[in-house]
Every structure is written in structure tokens, then in C-alpha cells.
């Protein structure tokens, strides 16, 4: 309001009224010890976050008969019934959700709808509301007063699918000034139901890297975030669940692998100042992207020296008629998995500079399985890094922590 007044855009009377309203809002927030979530649209007061970590959701819908809040596991065991007030505003307060980013939605008389007070994000295979709940004392993904890189957009035509593809590219601070310098490349993949915007919008990857690079903890690098879906016209409908056949999974991932190797990497190398050899190229991904990472890297070790799988199912079999659920129950055998990729530990350790595996401790079966895989690899002579995000599940706070641990290990 001070800026508006100094520019004389409003009369003194109007400015006084606006200032009074602002003061009243501030007083209400202070007395209630809550403030709008940082993920709200400008001016929206709900959802609001209390100083003790509780979160209150409100929605004005006088004609509604019932409303619930539903969302990811980090919010708690929902859906949460909302209570209707005298003015037609429904509300509910959730006790102590996990800090970080969570998708959520309202169920209004049986229909799922987005919150008009929240920004929307690509998740659950659609645009959906999301809430950012700050984690006390944690700022490694915050926007800080440090040199910042840029996130650029690029389109390229895939000859494999016949479709245009959209890719986001992070270039590190100083990229435009040090015109003779070339950079290593991290290909960073998203999960199922999300898209190439996830790592920057939900994951804050650009700020994590800005802060690590400014602190001298990570090498300046180019990060490439492509859309992880690629289906040829004659292929079956893309789907990944426990009933998905391994043969179909290999078909899905094989098409995307062809795009990464034969189209994406050449496009990036031709468009940016990369160091275009395997010793300066990494691939990593979360959930589905982690599965794709291991699939692609195991077949193209001539392209990658750094491999990272975040919260992903690690496959053990090769029977095309076996389902993903059946494979998940299989005991991981490093001598046969991924066509024997890990069978010769000496050869693998010589070629791969880093094999990084991670999971949140609250991911239950995935966490246990990834831990078993890491143990089996160690017994076979392969030395992976196994990172555990304590207290988080299959969610972005896990993957933010993952990247914060992974990035400093790359290109050293």
C-alpha cells in the first residue's frame, strides 16, 4: 500500500480505507496465528497455515449439501468432512500434516473440484490444487539472494512418434556470461501422472541447484526435464499399475528410451554448451521416472556415467508375461536383473561413477524394496548410495531432499 500511496494512484481517503482493511487482515491473522499458504493465488486467504502446523481449508458454497477435503497421504488420513457456517462458508482444520507440497481437492456433493484459492499443478494426470506447507528451519529449496540460473522452454519434433515435444532446460548461473564454458548435463525425469513442469513447479529444482552451486557444494550443470510419455500410434494405451505386463512396460519405456538417446540428447547437445560425453552426463528420475532411468541406463551405459533412481520400483525379471506386481514380489537378483547389468561388479564399478538409490521412510513397501536392492547389490560388490528421507512418503518433500543429496555427488 505504501507504493500505491507514493505514486498518488488513489486519493488519501481511499488509501486510508485500504490501509485500514490491510491492518484488519493482519490483526486477524496475528490473533489467529495463521497466514495464507505460499501456494495460494494472490489475495486468497485460504488455505491458511497456523503457527503450530495445522492447516485450515475453507470454501464458500451456500447451496452445497456436503463438502470434504481429500488429497495425498501427507495431509493425513482423509477425506476430511467440512462444516458449514451460518454464512454458507464450509471449513475444516487438519492437524499436523507433513511439511512440504501436497495435492488436494474438494469433494462437493460427490464431485471432485479444485480450490479456487489455490494455484494448480499437473498431478494425478490433470491440473489439480496444491498446497505448500513450509518445513520449519528448512530453506534449501527457498528463493535466496544468490546468483540464479534460468529455466528455458524448448520444443522439438520427434520423428519417432511424429509429435512435437516440450522440454524445460535449466541453465546455471553465469551461463550467458561465460560463453566459452561448457557444462555437464543431468536428465531429470518426473513421475506418473505429472509432466515436465513438475521438477520446477513442485520440486523447486532450480532453486535447490542455485543454492547448492552458490555454496560451492554442486558443480554448475545443465538440467534437462522432458515429458516422460511417448507412445507410438500402434502401441497399447499407456498405463502403469500392478497388472501391467512387463512386456508392455518395456514397450512404453523402449519408445521413450529411443527418444532420449536418439532425439533428446542430440537436440540438447546441438542447442546448449554441453560436454557431450558419458562422463559428463547423468540420468535420474522419480517413481515412474526412476524406473525409466534404470531401463534406459542399463541399455545405454555408453551414454551415462551417473544413474539415480528415486522412489522407484526396481525390476528383477524379464518374462514379458509377468506383471509388474508379480515382479515386485520377486527377490532381487543382481546377477540376472536388467539383463545382467550388475553381474560383473568390477566392470560396473569401473564404468559407472555413481549409482544412487533413494526412498522416503514412510513409503512402506517401496522403501523396504529399495533397501533390499541396495543390500543385494553390496553383497555382489556394487556400491550404491542409498539415501533415506526420514518421515516422508511418496511425495515431493522426499524428492526435494533426494535432489539436495544427489546433486553434490554428480560430476566430481
Would you write up a description of this structure?
The chain is an alpha+beta fold and 412 residues long. The chain folds into two domains: 35-133, Immunoglobulin-like, CATH 2.60.40; 150-409, Alpha/Beta hydrolase fold, catalytic domain (Rossmann fold, 3-Layer(aba) Sandwich). 29% of the residues lie in helices and 24% in strands. The protein is built from eleven helices and 19 strands. It has helices spanning 2-6, 12-32, 198-201, 205-214, 246-271, 288-299, 324-328, 337-340, 345-351, 365-379, 396-406, and strands at 34-36, 48-50, 55-60, 67-71, 80-81, 83-84, 89-94, 100-108, 111-113, 120-123, 126-133, 150-157, 164-171, 185-189, 222-226, 281-286, 306-310, 354-360, 385-389. It has an eight-stranded mixed beta sheet. Strands 4, 5, 8, 9, 10 and 11 form a six-stranded antiparallel beta sheet that branches. Mean pLDDT is 91; it is low at 1-31.
